[in-house]
Amino acid sequence: TISLVLSEQSIKFKSKGGEFKKIKVTSNTDDWEVLECPEWLTFSRNKNNEVIFESSKNNTKKERKGIVKIGCLGEIKEIVVIQM
Asked: pLDDT-derived band of residue 22, with 50, 70 and 90 as boundaries?
């Protein structure tokens, strides 16, 4: 059985961009990966099993909302991401 637990279920970013947020991924395997991410976020994975997200500037004057999917061997968890 695959265990996949995320430290957050949602994260919020300010509109200015250049903001960083971390999500801790706890799993019984290292095979997890980010499967889906909104185009206004970039991400990287560090050695501490965290995903670091960076937001780009929101020029739309509207709130942006998206879903990040992290998965491992068929197990998928979602994080709601919002940018003001």
From this structure: very high
Q: How confident is the model at residue 1 (pLDDT cuts 50, 70, 90)?
A: confident
Distances (CA, A) of 61 to 41, 44, 81, 84: 17, 27, 17, 8
Handedness of CA 26, 30, 76, 83 (dihedral sign): positive
**Among 46, 41, 49, CA closest to 80:** 41
Considering just the CA atoms, what is the radius of gyration of the chain in Å? Answer: 13
The count of C-alpha atoms lying within 13 angstroms of the C-alpha of 45, restricted to the half-sphere facing its C-beta, is 10
**Does the predicted model carry a pTM greater than 0.85?**
yes
Q: Give the list of residues 6+ apart from residue 10 with CB closer than 8 angstroms, or none.
A: 79, 80, 81, 82
Tokens of residue 12, six digits = 């919020």
When the pLDDT of each residue in the chain is averaged and rounded to a whole number, the result is: 96
